């Protein structure tokens, strides 16, 4: 598929996903405790649980989750710029932290949660408002009783790599 066609497909997929999301909010602890990670993320995608407010703030959309993986999309804009005239590294960090953490969450049973202990990012090239949509794809390396490890990357519709990361997450009872 041509990059322009892929870009349009990504834009349409994200619009379709956003249309199904619920209003931004925070699910209560019992809603989180009662569902596996996969069920919880599915509830967010289907709009039966509130969409996390960070998604609206950063303009990122969940695209897909499967056991051990998660994909989120965002489109960097001028509102994400730093004083140097490019998108702030924190934008990529937030996309990657979200995708990697949610990839781990897909493998957690009901009653378990996670939080990031470490996030290591390598930035390959800057993003600008001309970059267009980018996707952060996270994949689990390992999930145990107390620690989850995942890796991921941010690419544009043509497959160009912007950043890659690894994370270590603490897994804990909710």
Brief characterization of the structure:
The protein is an alpha+beta fold and 174 residues long.
What is the CATH topology assignment?
Thiol Ester Dehydrase, Chain A
Quantity of strands, as a count: 6
The mean pLDDT is 97
Q: Give the CATH architecture.
A: Roll
**How much helix, percentage-wise, in residues?**
25-40%
CATH homolog superfamily: Hotdog Thioesterase
What is the straight-line distance between the termini?
Answer: 44 Å
Largest sheet: 6 strands, antiparallel
Report the structural category.
Answer: alpha+beta
Structural shape: globular
Give the neighbour order of strands across the main sheet. 1-2-4-5-6-3
Order of helices and strands: HHHHEEHEEEE
Number of domains: 1
CATH class call: Alpha Beta
Cα-atom radius of gyration: 16 Å
Structure commentary:
The protein has one domain: Roll (Thiol Ester Dehydrase, Chain A). It is built from five helices and six strands. It has a six-stranded antiparallel beta sheet, sandwiched between helices. The termini are far apart.
Features:
6-stranded antiparallel sheet, 174 residues, alpha+beta, Thiol Ester Dehydrase, Chain A, 6 strands
Please specify the SSE layout and strand pairing:
Layout (H helix, E strand, L loop, with lengths): L2 H18 L8 H5 L3 H10 L6 H6 L1 E7 L2 E6 L14 H17 L6 E12 L10 E10 L3 E10 L4 E13 L1
Antiparallel strand pairs: 1-2, 2-4, 3-6, 4-5, 5-6
